[in-house]
Amino acid sequence: MAAHYPVAMRADARLNRERILSVAYKAFADDPDVSLNTIGKLAGVGAGTLYRHFPTRQDLILAVYRQELQSMVDSVQACEKAGEVRPGLEAADVLLLMGFLWSRAAGGAGEQQARRVLDLAISGLQ
Fold first, then answer.
1. Along the 126 residues of the chain, how does pLDDT read in single tens digits?
2. Angle at the Cα of 118 from the Cα atoms of 61 and 102, rounded to 5 degrees
3. Which among 22, 45, 46, 72 is most buried, taking Cβ atoms within 10 Å?
């Protein structure tokens, strides 16, 4: 999964986009209802810059999500290259596992189940 930038993006535009994504990740984690204007102000960009990169809230959320998935894929590939996980591990397998962990039941019992499954998965990845 490669970074998704428009062709020939100027360096300053790319930096603005990356700063918006970084700020948005934290802002959405702190408050899922945070306004796009607040994100723009925290990122140090004007509304025009924010909306030029991300015309809708959904576009920004999707871009943050894609960035996080790419980070996971990169981590799996780096771990395999470093010999920290078994050879032949596919990033898609790890993403599937993460999807299961995210869908666990809420509360203490769900957290305990997620820990057991994660421990089992980690031992299987090594």
1. 445 555 677 898 899 999 999 999 999 999 999 999 999 999 999 999 999 999 999 999 999 999 988 888 888 888 888 988 888 888 888 788 877 777 777 788 888 888 888 888 888 777
2. 25
3. 45
Q: Which residue has the tokens 């395999």?
A: 80
Residues 8 and 2: their CA atoms lie apart, in Å, by 15
pTM score? 0.70
- Distances in Å between the Cα of 12 and the Cα atoms of 8, 18, 67 are 12, 10, 19
- In sequence order, the 6+-apart residues with CB closer than 8 A to the CB of 77 are 91
